[in-house]
């Protein structure tokens, strides 16, 4: 594979690299590195795709690979979920199929979010945030203040904050908007990033 894949860490033992392009075609391949014995194994996504997002909850033993685009430029709502405790893969669904989205997690609260993206080859950015709550096993949705793709995400676990910054807005212009979600209060706030 040469580009457009996603990676994530599950527990201090597993690192996974999923999807992407190999010889100009999307792939289902998941390369799994086992740190305990310095070995590699292979797994498979349920559908071949690139430009997907990933997020994990180490303490919950979960890794998720969400969205992406296939060879025919079709966007997917697929979420491949790996459970490290059982060693099993299951499939969930995003509320909107899309690529160019971002994934982030908040370990202490058992929350994974997949935000933004683009829903088709020549379509506008999306403002949807899909939220997974590991405690309940339920999915819900929220909205970004600005629809966008190729944004960045970060979490501040101790403060219970998830941040979504920048990206390419639907008008084709980059945005300096930062959406912040406070898990404790359940509220969203918006700020602007500082240019340097």
Name its key features:
mainly beta, five-stranded antiparallel beta sheet, four-stranded antiparallel beta sheet, 0% helix, globular
Layout of helices and strands:
Elements: E1 6-10, E2 14-18, E3 21-22, E4 25-26, E5 29-34, E6 39-44, E7 53-57, E8 62-66, E9 78-83, E10 88-93, E11 102-106, E12 111-115, E13 126-133, E14 138-149, E15 152-156, E16 161-165, E17 168-169, E18 177-182, E19 187-192
Distance between the termini: 35 Å
Question: What's the tally of helices?
Answer: 0
Q: What amount of the residues lies in strands?
A: over 45%
Please list the strands of the largest sheet in the order they lie side by side. Answer: 11-12-13-14-17
Briefly characterize the structure.
The protein is 0% helix and 52% strand. With 196 residues, it is mostly beta strands.
Walkthrough of the structure:
This protein is an all-beta fold and 196 residues long. 0% of the residues lie in helices and 52% in strands. It has strands at 6-10, 14-18, 21-22, 25-26, 29-34, 39-44, 53-57, 62-66, 78-83, 88-93, 102-106, 111-115, 126-133, 138-149, 152-156, 161-165, 168-169, 177-182, 187-192. It has a five-stranded antiparallel beta sheet with strand order 11-12-13-14-17, with no helix packed on it. It has a four-stranded antiparallel beta sheet with strand order 1-2-5-6, with no helix packed on it. Strand 13 (126-133) and strand 14 form a beta hairpin. It is globular. The mean pLDDT is 90.
